[in-house]
């Protein structure tokens, strides 16, 4: 029954790992995916809004997709097509969309759905936080209507775009700063946990062996991560965006710390860094604004994610 399912908006920039998060959300029995909002990020908005519909078509659902921001609120646009390919999906075959782009902007849809579902709406954000930043500026009452934001982004000790910054936060630090200061309960699944929630090549092969179009597609998107992340000394492909979606589905698989997290917007070398007092003297913790996810039960994570994708082969 829909009444017992968690209403969710997935705000994303597909992207190979966003695509796996989409496949998880589309079939999850616990969720009611009420909208997908696309933002420029890994590739341009024309491609992210197209890819979201391609992946949902692969999933066999027609969840409405709405386009959002074509660039950051401030500063120059930064893409990650060197990781995700020119089309955002590394050229991995996916069907053409079976449904058109929805009418309206992402931030207006976020506000409309927040009003519709009251304090029950959860937003899972797996791209730059531009759409949410704009929504919060345009609709100051939005925080009182959102249950939680689970985001993939940030890190405590290192970056993957600069030495200090993770990509999603670096791509629009000002928007991220607005989100972290919004008062909405936040869960940050950053590099601290995504590099611990990885698939080995053997586990990717087992996923592909399921043989469904969805599992094969997911496995092929994961495969590139094994080689790419060798330089980060990760023994497999980190599940960046799927980690945030899996937290929304099964938070018991993870451990976290309640703490204060802020975003550096000005630093010459540290722009886009998420700064936390979780491991310091905790002088800011009286104003804790987030849960910093630090650990994952990796073997159970892999098993459950695989099971969820295997569901596409069931009647």
TrEMBL record:
Keywords tagged on the record: Glycosidase, Hydrolase
Alphabetical list of InterPro entries matching this protein: I/U_nuclsd_hydro_CS (IPR015910), Inosine/uridine_hydrolase_dom (IPR001910), IUNH (IPR023186), Ribo_hydro-like (IPR036452)
A GO cellular component annotation in the UniProt record: cytosol
Domain Inosine/uridine-preferring nucleoside hydrolase: 8-302
GO molecular function: purine nucleosidase activity; uridine nucleosidase activity
Keyword DNA-binding: no
Superkingdom, taxonomy of origin: Bacteria
Keyword Hydrolase: yes
UniProt xrefs under Gene3D superfamilies: Ribonucleoside hydrolase-like (3.90.245.10)
A Gene Ontology BP annotation from the UniProt entry: purine nucleoside catabolic process
Protein name, as recorded: Nucleoside hydrolase
């Amino acid at each position: 029954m829909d009444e017992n399912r968690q209403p969710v908006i997935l705000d994303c920039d597909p992207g190979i790992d966003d695509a796996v998060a989409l496949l998880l959300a589309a079939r999850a029995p616990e969720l009611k995916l009420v909208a997908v909002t696309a933002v420029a990020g890994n590739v341009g908005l024309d491609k992210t809004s197209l890819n979201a519909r391609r992946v949902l078509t692969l999933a066999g659902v027609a969840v409405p997709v709405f386009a959002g921001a074509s660039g950051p609120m401030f500063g120059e646009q930064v893409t990650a097509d060197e990781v995700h390919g020119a089309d955002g999906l590394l050229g991995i075959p996916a069907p053409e969309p079976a449904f058109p782009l929805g009418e309206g902007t992402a931030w207006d849809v976020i506000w409309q759905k927040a009003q519709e579902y009251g304090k029950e709406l959860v937003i899972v954000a797996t791209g730059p936080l531009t759409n949410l930043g704009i929504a919060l500026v345009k609709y100051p009452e939005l925080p009182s209507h959102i249950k939680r934001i689970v985001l993939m982004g940030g890190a405590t000790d290192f970056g993957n775009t600069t030495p200090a910054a993770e990509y999603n936060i670096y791509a629009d630090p000002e928007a991220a700063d607005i989100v972290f200061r919004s008062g909405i309960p936040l869960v940050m699944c950053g590099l601290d946990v995504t590099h611990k929630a990885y698939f080995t090549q053997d586990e990717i092969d087992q996923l592909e062996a399921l043989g469904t179009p969805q599992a094969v597609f997911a496995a092929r998107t994961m495969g590139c991560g094994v080689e790419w992340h060798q330089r980060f000394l990760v023994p497999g492909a980190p599940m960046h965006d799927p980690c945030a979606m899996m937290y929304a589905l099964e938070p018991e698989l993870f451990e976290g710390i309640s703490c204060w997290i802020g975003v550096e917007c000005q630093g010459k070398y540290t722009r886009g860094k998420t700064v936390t007092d979780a491991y310091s003297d905790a002088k800011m913790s009286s104003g804790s604004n987030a849960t910093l996810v630090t650990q994952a039960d990796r073997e159970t994570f892999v098993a459950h994610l695989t099971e969820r994708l295997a569901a596409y082969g069931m009647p």
